[in-house]
Design a protein that fits this description.
Layout: E1 6-10, H1 14-24, E2 29-33, H2 36-43, E3 50-54, H3 62-70, E4 80-84, H4 89-97, E5 102-105, H5 110-122
Parallel strand pairs: 1-2, 1-3, 3-4, 4-5
Length: 124
């Protein structure tokens, strides 16, 4: 049996989530979440191959969620790519220092995203 790798995306923008779903759902078992708490509930019983995570979200931001992910034994090594519209140097440095594996500025270039996903899932 050939199982698809699982990717989850957490972003408060429905437009971004729909675009990611259209891009990823054929090749991956894709799950979209508009709120961090719902994604964290999913992660209690599922370990995805990769997490796409927006930084600037209400209630809990991406940095706070990443801290929870990295504090969970089963998720410590799960690759995380930050997606954000804020790509100033300090933001990028903070993202990497927080434990993100990579960083992509919005608007998302689909070719760059796919290359980074494939690298982190299949070549690490």
């Amino acid at each position: 049996m050939n199982y698809k790798k699982t990717i989850i995306a957490v972003d408060d923008s429905g437009i971004v989530l729909k675009r990611l779903e259209n891009l990823l759902s054929q090749a991956y078992d894709f799950h979209a979440f508009a709120k961090c708490d719902r994604a964290l509930t999913f992660l209690e019983t599922n370990v995805p191959s990769l997490i796409l995570l927006d930084i600037d979200m209400p209630v809990m931001n991406g940095f706070q969620m990443l801290k929870k992910i990295r504090a969970t034994e089963s998720l410590k090594l799960t690759p995380v790519i930050f997606l954000t519209s804020n790509n100033d140097k300090e933001h990028v440095i903070r993202a990497v220092q927080s434990g993100a594996n990579d960083y992509i500025a919005k608007p998302i270039d689909e070719h760059i995203l796919m290359n980074k996903i494939n690298t982190l899932i299949y070549h690490r």
